[in-house]
Specification:
Strand content: 5-15%
Low-confidence stretches: 389-395
Number of helices: 23
Strand order of the largest sheet: 7-6-5-11-12
Mean pLDDT: 93
Number of strands: 14
Distance between the termini: 33 Å
Length: 589
């Protein structure tokens, strides 16, 4: 916030002049708590300690200095123990609030790669993927708005035993079924056979156990399991018929994923495929072995000892020379550095992989890659439904497409409940229901701190009251209706700032919160937390509605035009913030 920075500079000079020595007092201003009067608060305890005086004395000295020498910045202050609360000059606040920037510029922007989604090709995207995707997309948009160069990527996990399970089940039970003949999206069709495999596998294990085979042995000798294992070996040996089936079923899945991504308005700058990257990293491991960064066991497997770093021994190559996930990730990280000359890399992955990424970043650092320190694991908690956990293999996962359809249908029902529509099946109406429904879904997930586990409640998400996307969208639509009315009445409101009388307390508060946008945007970028931006936007919408209900606009001729200016700026901030959350704003609701 430019005004806060100007005040801090003035205070710093005052304190340095007072002490006679140039000192870093570690000054910072934070929004004043609502129960106290003021806009921003300075904690003066550190200052008092360095100047060997009481907090109250130095706070009053600073406050009196500001209102006597810098009334263009501050017009009032009060002291509560060691806290100095300052009230901004109205003219300065108006200027700052109405000129608040929605896009920051950096002298030295960074190039940052954000990885998210990264699905398996044996099942459709589900609710857990949605949280991942929404976080990755929003963080990338927030970083772009902070002035950085951002590239969005995903790793598609398109190989391995889990893929072969779907393939063998389709061969056994599919009767050449395909997306066209089944009427299913390709990813749903393949997911259907992943579930079918699990069902058949469990039945075979149970039958073997009943015949007297121990369960552990039965699980490893079930016929369908052996067939899947053989298919994996055939894939690794590049047998033509296996590769052809793999390519065909993966193509179905990719088409299904693309439909879901399009519905979520999500895209990627580059896709990496595990089938192309799983051999990456082996050469790097061999180089690390020659430099004694890694060590080899008697069985030929390669490891790294991380016990001095508080971790464990980690395998990098199996005894047969095959790589493990960490090896692939090392190779992929290095390839991305070459692809994008990146300054930083963000991995959007659930918190069950916290240890994995600690190990990965530490290995990259030991290998001498300076950018390893700029790698970050955007660790997030699981997302459940009120009914509990989800399980892919048992087919109890909430499909992403089904969930989106549900919230869109709820948006339609809620809208029609509140007002009549001539043609609810029209293109415009369908587009409105989509904006509201997906806005509800996205906001409900993104308003929660990424680190926290959460429960997604579809019914709560669509509520027009409370901390929801539709409430904020409705606030935006309300403002646009005011602007349309003003324009229809030929009101010249855009230059009203030139003749503004003193501010009403609610105008003052609204302008102050508008001016906070850039600080919140920067904080959200530094913390990789869309939740900070989401909850700020809700508070701004709440405040505007209070402003709207308590202050007249069109029935207050002397105030009308300026209040329209404030309203319009509020709409601009809301629209920008929602865009950064991946949410579209309806012009009318």
């Amino acid at each position: 916030m430019q005004l806060s920075n100007s005040i801090l500079q003035v205070i710093a000079k005052f304190l340095n002049d007072k002490s006679g020595v140039e000192t870093d007092f570690g000054l910072s201003l934070a929004p004043t708590r609502k129960e106290f009067e003021g806009d921003v608060t300075l904690v003066v305890f550190p200052v008092a300690g360095k100047l060997k005086t009481s907090p109250e004395n130095i706070a009053n000295e600073i406050g009196n200095f500001l209102i006597s020498e810098h009334t263009s910045l501050v017009t009032a202050f009060n002291v509560i123990k060691g806290f100095l609360n300052l009230t901004f000059n109205e003219g300065a606040l108006i200027s700052q609030g109405l000129s608040t920037q929605t896009q920051l510029k950096l002298e030295n922007p960074k190039t940052i790669v954000v990885e998210f989604s990264s699905p398996n090709t044996n099942k459709p995207l589900h609710l857990g993927h949605i949280r991942n995707i929404l976080l990755g997309w929003s963080v990338s948009e927030i970083l772009k708005a902070n002035g950085h160069n951002v590239h969005r990527v995903q790793v598609v996990n398109d190989r391995g035993i889990h893929i072969c399970k779907s393939m063998i089940a389709w061969l056994k039970f599919g009767n050449n079924e395909n997306p066209d003949s089944s009427g299913l999206k390709g990813d749903k069709l393949v997911g259907k056979y992943y579930v079918a495999y699990d069902k058949a596998y469990k039945a075979e294990v149970e039958k073997l156990v009943e015949s007297g085979v121990e369960k552990e042995v039965a699980e490893k000798t079930a016929p369908i399991f052996n067939e899947a294992q053989q298919m994996l070996r055939d894939w690794e040996d590049k047998k033509p018929e296996t590769i052809a089936l793999w390519q065909k079923m993966n193509a179905w899945v990719y088409a299904g994923f693309e439909t879901t991504y399009k519905s979520l308005s999500v895209s990627f700058d580059k896709n990496y495929y595990e089938s192309n990257t799983y051999l990456l990293g082996k050469k790097i491991v061999e180089e690390g072995l020659s430099k004694d960064i890694f060590y080899k066991k008697e069985d030929g497997s390669v490891w790294i000892d991380l016990t001095e770093d508080g971790l464990d021994h980690k395998i990098l190559l199996r005894s047969d020379g095959t790589s493990v996930y960490i090896t692939q990730d090392i190779g992929t990280a290095i390839e991305r550095f070459h692809d994008f000359a990146m300054d930083g890399m963000i991995y959007t992955v659930g918190n069950e992989q916290d240890y994995h990424f600690r190990v990965l970043f530490l290995i990259l650092k030991k290998l001498g890659y300076a950018w390893a320190d700029a790698c970050y694991h955007l660790s997030y908690g699981m997302v459940d439904l009120p009914s509990g956990k989800m399980k892919s293999r048992e087919g109890t996962v909430v499909d992403a497409d089904d969930l989106m359809a549900e919230v869109i249908e709820s948006a339609k029902a809620k809208t029609l409940e509140l007002r009549e529509m001539e043609n609810p099946e029209s293109t415009d109406a369908v587009e409105l229901f989509n904006k509201i429904g997906l806005g509800a879904l996205k906001y409900y997930i993104l308003k929660v701190d990424p680190k926290k586990r959460m429960i997604f409640n579809p019914e709560e998400s669509i509520d027009l009251h409370g901390n929801t996307g539709p409430f904020i969208q409705y606030t935006y639509a309300r403002i646009k209706a005011l602007i349309r009315r003003a324009d229809a009445e030929n009101i010249e409101w855009k230059n009203a700032i030139d003749n503004k009388p003193s501010l009403h307390p609610l105008e003052h508060e609204l302008l102050f919160n508008i001016s906070r946008f850039t600080d919140v945007l920067e904080e959200a970028g530094n913390a990789y937390s869309p939740a900070l931006l989401a909850n700020y936007t809700f508070e701004l919408a709440q405040l505007f509605n209070k402003f709207y209900h308590e202050l007249s606009i069109f029935n207050a001729p002397n105030e009308r035009d300026f209040r329209l200016v404030i309203a319009n700026k509020t709409a601009e901030i809301i629209s920008t913030a929602l865009h950064l959350l991946g949410i579209k704003c309806p012009e009318a609701m």
